[in-house]
Structure prediction request, 265 residues.
Amino acid sequence: MTIIRSPSVVGCPTGRLTSRRLNSGTTGLRKAARTQRKPIGHGLGKIGFLTTEECPTMPTELEIKAHLDTMRSLPLRLEKLASSIGTTQWPGQPVRLDLPSGMELTPAERAEIQERLKQIEAILSGKLTANESAKARLSLLTKMLLAFPAVGSSSEAAAKARSDVYDDALSDIPPWAINNAIKRWSRGEVPSDLALGSLNFNFAPAPAVLRKIAKYELAPFEAQATKLRRLLKAIPIERAMDPTPIPQETKSEWGKVFPIGVRRM
Prediction:
């Protein structure tokens, strides 16, 4: 009998153990899990097998869910501001985002938007380093591929190739979104508006399918981040209607912001 650690937090095995018998007919990642445990590779790495000691401490599932629920949509006031943004284009100049007269952002509102954007970006990144994300992704995908039978060849080479393809397809997706996507698949609750065609929930989803479901989880936060960035770039309509070029800003290699003046010929 092989002892496999059962994840009780998003993407991270804990000290709680469950036993699972892996018989001689077990294939793919099941066979790999029975015969060896390998650390994740270099950099983001490819999928191997983690021990508890190699897994970093990560937020619990309840903590993540609570944060996602409170941050899923913009407050009504900010939503109205974002919906009020217009555009102005002067020849030879970048498009200007503008706010109606009397609706320009106050310093307090700008600070609030910057803080919220920071929190949204943390959600989109999963609040983890690249190495921590890779390990969490590994744990989630290993668990999924152990739970669902593999389609096609069952050799160890095929299992490794399969796991590498999943890792490549999901390398830029935060672990919480992968976890939610796997849960949707396990429950057969894939949104119909994803137009994925006929799905067989008896097998693991294809890498591209799992990615689309995970991106569906990310979509509200990506849309919100776009709105917040547009708000921060928006200027009063009065300034937008003035054809005088607006100096652009750039960051030096040290992160300091400098205005770039417009040279008149």
Q: What stands out?
A: Strands lie at 2-9, 12-20, 86-88, 96-99, 235-236, 248-251, 257-260. Confidence is low (pLDDT under 50) at residues 1-58, 250-265. Residues 207-233 form the longest helix (27 residues).
